Amino acid sequence: MEMQEQTLRAMNQALRKVLTPLVRVMIRFGFSYGTFSEIARSVFVEQAYQQLQREDQKATASAVAALTGLSRKEVSRLTKSDDAALVETEQKRNRAAQLMSGWSNDPDFSSEGLPKRLLLTGDSDSFAELVRRYGSDVTSASMLALLTRNGAVETDGNTVWLLSDAYIPMGTPIERLEILGTDANELITTIAHNIDAASDQRVFQRKVSVDQLSADDVADFRAFSDEQSQALLETYDAWLTNRARQLSPADEMQKNERVSVGIYFYASDHAERSILKNSEEGEQK
Asked: Which residues, in sequence order, are CB contacts of 100 under 8 Å at separation 6+?
């Protein structure tokens, strides 16, 4: 019983820490508690169904209701939700990132590790061919518009050139929120996996953390960290692109796995700055 109480307290504390920055963003964008509650109930239902299926139990509305504490009527209603739009947004982000990786690492579109300036159209080493090879079913016009909107490329009408080492879709609030959902999900999924996995099945999850730094120390380390982190991610990116390029058509039918490695920088004044910014904007209104 004592262990259960300690686990519950630890879960409560973890949940508050996870929700604090998320709720701050929700309030910033005008999301109500009712909206959050509806989404939370939907996710509880979804995960309960998956849990029952993993345990080879009957995944009925009654069983899900028992696991979640929701009524059977609520469970039935929530199973009809549609996340197609969110899936489409994430797919676009993945295709854009994959395309930019190919542009920087595929020798057909780069030279000595630097992306080439490409003709918009053509049968080889053109932007259209780059999109055909790395953009899945997205048209070259749609991809060009997406990358241009986010400041990743520029074009003079005949050629196009890459401006950024990485695709960071920050052009609109929708794209910024999509990053919040995808990247936070991947990090928490990794942590959740390591909680349950055997020691030899856990994946890499580490961080360094030091306090009692001055503001100048933080600024200096941020510059150092940005440089080192970008170099490491470019090394990973080149390795992955080269390996993916080696796939034969037969391999493509069998392999559809995706991996991500993320690096983040946190400073204790981030939350304070967000609160101050929101307060100032509220006063201006």
From this structure: 147, 152, 162, 164, 166, 167
Q: Spell out the residues 6+ positions from residue 99 whose beta carbon is closer than 8 angstroms to its own.
A: 130, 131, 134, 135, 143, 147, 167
β strands within the chain, DSSP E: 110-111, 114-115, 118-119, 153-155, 159-162
Task: Please report, as a single letter, which amino acid is at residue 202.
Answer: R
CA 161/CA 50 separation, integer angstroms: 45
Q: Is 245 helix (H, G, I), strand (E, B) or coil?
A: helix
- Give the C-alpha separation, 143 to 128, whole Å: 10
How far separated are the first and last CA of the chain, in Å rounded? 51
- Strand (E) or helix (H) holding 237: helix 215-245
Take residue 101 and report the two structure tokens written for it.
Answer: 């990786």
Question: Is-contact 133 102, C-beta < 8 A?
Answer: yes
| Tens-digit pLDDT profile for residues 130-170 | 998 888 778 899 889 888 887 889 999 999 999 876 666 55
| Encoded tokens for 80 | 């009809």
283: pLDDT strictly greater than 50: no
pLDDT band at 285 (very low <50, low <70, confident <90, very high): very low
